[in-house]
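In the laboratory, one determines a bound structure by crystallizing the protein with its ligand and collecting diffraction data. In a computational setting the workflow is compressed into a single prediction: the sequence and the ligand go in, and a structural description comes out. We illustrate the idea with zinc ion.
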Amino acid sequence: MSKTVNLKSFKSLIELFEAFPDEQSAIDHLRALRWKNGAFCPYCGGTRIMHFSDKRTHKCSDCRQRFSIKVGTIFEDTKLPLRKWFAAIWLITAHKKGIASTQLATDLSITQKSAWFVLHRLRYAARTKSFARPLAGEVEADSTFVGGNPRNKPLSKRAQLAKSGAKTEKIVVHGVMQRAAEGEVSQARAFTLPNASGPAIQANVRANVEPGSTLYTDAWRSYRKLKAEYVHKWVDHGVSYVDGTIHTNGIEGFWSLFKRQYHGTHHWISRKHMDAYLNEMCYRWNRRDMGAGERVNDFLGNVEGRLTYKALIA
Ligand SMILES: [Zn+2]
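The predicted complex, in C-alpha cell form:
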C-alpha cells in the first residue's frame, strides 16, 4: 500500500528531512518497512486488517482493535513526531561516539528529559536480540574495566554516591568479537558482568560463542577452563601482544572506541544503564560498512517491542 523511500543515497540529515517533508511521509515509510511481508495486528497477530481513510488508523477484523503503525514498537505512545525520531536515529547511528542527551535536546528542540528517553528507547531497539545466532569461526574474547573516577560523575551523582557511602566503582565488561570474514566486518557483543570471576567469564563465552570455534584470548587463567569446548589460543601480554594470528587487537580496538564514547560523549554511565550503551556501540560497530541512510532503515527494521518510562527508571 505505501512505497518505501530509498534511503541508501542519504548522505546528510538535510537529505533525510527532504525525503520526509511531513509526518505522513514518515508514517508511510515506517509502515512500508514494518509491513514489508504484509499487514498484521500488533495485538493478536491477525492479518485481516482494515485501513482507514485518515491513512493512520487500522483495525483488526479478528480482535476488533484499532491501532496505528506505532503500536507494538518503541514509538508507541510517543508525543514526538516520527520525523524527529528518524533524525535521532540518524544522529545516534551516524556518530561513532554516540550523542549526549543534552546535545540531542538542542539538535531536535526537545526537552533533555525526552531526549534522554528517546536515546534509551533507541538503545533498547539496538540490543542484540535473544534469537541472534552465536558468534563462530575465529573469535576474540577479552574483558576490561570501565568507569570508576567519581570526578567524572555529575555533581548530583557524586552527592548521591557520597550519601550512600558507595565506593568508587569499576564495572567489569566482557566482550567477544568474531573476526571479519572476506567482504564482511567483525561482529562484536559486549556485556557487563557482576564480577571478573572465572565462572562469569566462561558463562558469557558459552552464551555467545558457538562450541568448536577458535577462541583468542590473553593469558587470563579463566579462559583455560574452556579448552574442552573451544580451540583455545592465547597470548601472554607480559611477553608480546601479537603472535601471528594469536592476538586480541580487534576487541581491544572496540574497547578503546567505547572508552572514547564514555569519556568524550557521556563522561559517566551508571552500572544500571551500561549494557544499554554497550548495545548501542555494538550496533554501530557491527554495521560500520553500511552508509548512514542504509543504517537508518536497518534500525527501523529493529523497532519491535516497547520500553516504557516506568520500566526504564525502575
Ligand atoms: Zn487483532
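Residues 41, 43-44, 46, 60, 62-63, 65 surround zinc ion (CB under 6 Å). Keep in mind that any predicted model is a hypothesis to be tested, not a measurement.
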